[in-house]
Amino acid sequence: MPKSLSLRFDIIINNFNYAPFLDQAIESALAQTWPNTEVIVVDDGSTDDSREVMKRYKSDITAVLKSNGGQGSSYNAGWAASRGDLVCFLDSDDTLYLDAMESAVSLFDDPQVVKVQWPLRVVDPSGAWHGELSTHVAPPDGDLKQRVAADGPLYDFHYTTGAAYRADFLTQVLPMPEAEYRNGGDVYLITLAPVYGRLRTATQALGTYRVHGQNNYRERRLDEHRIKNYMQRFEDNSRALAAHLTLQGIQANMDQWKRRNFNYIWLERLLLAKQDLTALVSPGESYILVNGDEWGDPQPVEDRRAIPFLESEGVYWGPPADDAAAIDEVERLRRQGARYVVLWWTCFWWLEHYAQFSRYLQSRFTRSLDNERLIAFDLAISKGASCNEKQR
Fold first, then answer.
1. Given the DSSP bridges, would you call strands 113-118 and 198-201 parallel, antiparallel or unpaired?
2. At what angle do helices 355-364 and 323-335 cross, to 10 degrees?
């Protein structure tokens, strides 16, 4: 028997109150074309019918039943029951395609590879796919140790993937701290994998990511509480990363990571930008927000109405086709009472790309805010006008 065929692949499904989806996750794991596959299902103290679902598969799965402790504790419990050479952690609202593990094995042919990752098809609650992939940009792969040593934790919501890991790597990083990782156990592994070996990415989607309204992160409002939670998670991941780099004789600089890492900079600037808007825009006023719809919060500050730009029936509609379209839309919204145009820092490029639009704003209106986070133009007072001269 070829050595690769003897490799055991363990699929560890972590579940908490996802009974409506759990059977589909289990079925997808049991149906794998890789012949040496075992399925472990960890139920994290569910209060719905999850354990009744698991009973239907009692002869086909290893069931681990535990009190509620969060995702990190579920990963640890599943890992404790695992004997696999390769391990895939699967959320119970997601699924694997039939050849997922077989495809992953082929990418582990290099013994330096500790993680194999793959795109997921984003599906609706019924499992229907409408064309979206979880990877909006190609995820980094290869040898990334020096990159994380310089810049800190390497993860980004633009490239959510499925993943499998070599057991030799997991032995060095599990069990993970459970209090810090009630959520985000997958990010702990994503953070540490580059320290111990290479990453490889499959070109095709090997599973699905289900959007159903109860996901931990997807389509949830990015309010101040969640922003601070994500910033704390960056610090938790940084501490874990620094500790494992130190074990390999690599000095880490966490303060430098905060200054250089996009994942932290973006969150910190968003938190401060909300404070900027609260100070700039008076309660009851509306403002045009140019942020590429990336804030995850259509109304980021209370009692002030943000208008996405461009918008259609109050919903973000994408960037304008040209300068004329941008100017016409600002004039329309200005007549309707919009007080400011506010540009978020990742959209500052608009002021170069839309040159006529930029000249229109800068020549006609006062720049009322200008920092590394936001640039704002006051639409109520034209340049050269007195403070009492309203232009609505």
1. parallel
2. 40
Q: What is the pTM of this model?
A: 0.88
What's the pLDDT tens digit per position in 309-325? 999 888 899 999 999 99
State the burial class of residue 316 (Cβ atoms within 10 Å of its Cβ: 0-12, 13-18, 19+): middle
Q: Tell the CATH topology of 3-213.
A: Spore Coat Polysaccharide Biosynthesis Protein SpsA; Chain A (3.90.550)
Residue pLDDT, tens place only, 32-80: 999 999 999 999 999 999 999 999 999 999 999 999 999 999 999 999 9
Q: How many angstroms separate the CA atoms of 353 and 333, rounded?
A: 21
Helices 185-196 and 71-81 meet at what angle, rounded to 10? Answer: 60
Structure tokens belonging to residue 50: 């999850």
What does the pLDDT look like over 137-162, one tens digit per residue? Answer: 889 999 999 999 999 999 877 788 99
Report long-range pairs for 154-161 (Cβ below 8 Å, ≥24 apart): 154/190, 154/191, 154/194, 155/187, 155/190, 155/191, 155/237, 155/263, 156/262, 156/263, 157/217, 159/134, 159/135, 160/120, 160/134, 160/135, 160/209, 161/117, 161/118, 161/119, 161/120, 161/134, 161/135, 161/201
Rounded distance between C-alpha atoms, residue 87 and residue 8, angstroms: 9
Chain centroid, CA 372 distance in Å: 23
DSSP for 345-385 reads: GGGTTHHHHSHHHHHHHHHHEEEEEESSSEEEEEEEEETTS
Please spell the DSSP secondary structure of 104-172, one letter per residue: HHHHT-STTEEEEEE--EEE-TT--EEEEESBSSPPP-B--HHHHHHH-----TTB--EEEEEHHHHHH
Q: How far apart are CA 327 and CA 325, in angstroms?
A: 6
Distance CA 70, CA 16 (A): 8
Side-chain half-sphere of 131: how many Cα atoms within 13 Å? Answer: 0
